[in-house]
Amino acid sequence: DQQVKQNSPSLSVQEGRISILNCDYTNSMFDYFLWYKKYPAEGPTFLISISSIKDKNEDGRFTVFLNKSAKHLSLHIVPSQPGDSAVYFCAARSHTGKLIFGQGTTLQVKP
Amino acid sequence: KAGVTQTPRYLIKTRGQQVTLSCSPISGHRSVSWYQQTPGQGLQFLFEYFSETQRNKGNFPGRFSGRQFSNSRSEMNVSTLELGDSALYLCASSLGPESPGGYTFGSGTRLTVV
Questions:
Q1: Looking at CB atoms within 10 Å, which of A3, A12, A38, B99 has the fewest?
Q2: Does A106 touch chain B (CB under 8 A)?
Q3: Would you list the DSSP string of chain B?
Q4: Do B101 and A43 touch (CB under 8 A)?
């Protein structure tokens, strides 16, 4: 029972263009959504989050959008840089505080 | 401030053996969670400890167990290892279960079962 899904295993974009990573969830009780970035041989690092009462949160080149009616969130990276190449995980926080992660999307930004 | 420390970084074990992994959280963090990462499966939740008590448990067999000590350090144990247990095991700490902003992860322990 995958409550958080990232249906695109990989994404490739050109440097300078927009990267859009998508995530769907099934549980309307999640109260917080987060994005993590992971490089090989390192643990995931926190990128940006959004509360379920908001629909947008922006931090520099990173913006997260939440569409509660569609149970969908997305991460926009503008402009994309080669250093953004990594695996991106979305996560949702349950009412017990547990973080449930998606399968991850590998982003490749080509110079 | 030191980050989350996981030891060892790499481990090779034989089927049937047991293994213990260690996690030292960020100083002051009292919540520790464990995740298993395998290709295509993302991060699968194992369990979460807060103040030495297990608060949440994922859908893993009883061969996977854990504990937390009074200094918040945590260990996870896997008994009767199987080839499918080969994975990256990640530990994450936070101030508490309700702390916003999620967790801080360690670099993980790469377990290979042969």
A1: A12
A2: no
A3: ----EEE-SEEEE-TT--EEEEEEPPTT--EEEEEEEETTTEEEEEEEEETTEEEEE-S--TTEEEEE-TTS-EEEEE-S--GGG-EEEEEEEESSTT-TT--EE---EEEEE-
A4: no
